[in-house]
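quick one before i forget lol
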Amino acid sequence: MEVTVGITLTASERELLLSILEEHQRELLREISRTDRHVYKVGLKENAGAVEAMLRKLRSARPSELATI
């Protein structure tokens, strides 16, 4: 089930959130490459996919859309 949440971000808050998500994505990718446990790796890949989706939304949002992200 997908839930839609609206938040208002300033440009600097958007940049900070992008930075945090990008760093978390790098950490997830490192952890994926280091683990041998299949179930754990699958969960990490799902999380990495969710982070990538959020990054795409933030990167593609026009300034007028930032209030509804």
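fyi The helical segments are 11-34, 38-60.
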